[in-house]
Amino acid sequence: MCPPDSAQPRPRGEAGDGARQGADIIGDGLPGVEPPAPAPLAVSAREAARLVNVSARHWAGLVARGRAPAGVRLGRRRVWPLEELRGWLAAGAPSREHWEGRP
């Protein structure tokens, strides 16, 4: 028989040492509480419009006229990195030409 402090690992979720383990404990350690989803790195056109407080149609027009960042293509989808949107707004929402550094 092995003493309780032996170096043998216990299967995950097995009680006995008082540690908070187990597959049924998630999040902050509360049973059944899902951890928060990680913050997105990029958002869709609809979400970008919402974040800058304009309609989706107005956002599409800004992008089409070169008055907003072009975003990034991911396959067939276009997304806008949140850091780029924050920087663009902090810079005073310059035209894409100025934002991308091509005067």
Topology:
Blueprint lengths: L24 E2 L3 E2 L10 E2 L1 H7 L4 H9 L7 E3 L2 E5 H9 L5 H4 L4
Antiparallel strand pairs: 1-2, 3-5, 4-5
Helix pairs in contact: 1-2
N to C succession of SSEs: EEEHHEEHH
Termini Cα gap: 78 Å
Parts with pLDDT < 50 across at least 5 consecutive residues: none
- Structural class by sheet pairing and helices: alpha+beta
DSSP strand content: 5-15%
Biggest pleated sheet:
3 strands, antiparallel
Helix proportion range: 25-40%
**Number of distinct helices:** 4
Strand order of the largest sheet: 3-5-4
Q: Could you report the average pLDDT, rounded to the nearest whole number?
A: 82
Oligomer: single chain
Radius of gyration from the alpha-carbon trace, in angstroms: 24 Å
How many β-strand runs? 5
Could you say which overall geometry the principal axes of the C-alpha atoms support?
elongated
Write up this protein.
The protein has a domain at 42-99. The radius of gyration is 24 Å and the shape is elongated. It contains four helices and five strands; from the N terminus they run E-E-E-H-H-E-E-H-H. It is of the alpha+beta class and 103 residues long. The protein has a three-stranded antiparallel sheet with strand order 3-5-4. It has a two-stranded antiparallel ribbon with strand order 1-2. The longest helix is centred in the middle third of the chain and has 9 residues, at 56-64. The mean pLDDT is 82. A hairpin with a 2-residue loop joins strand 4 and strand 5 (77-81). Helix 1 (45-51) packs across helix 2 (56-64). The chain has helices at 45-51, 56-64, 82-90, 96-99, and strands spanning 25-26, 30-31, 42-43, 72-74, 77-81.
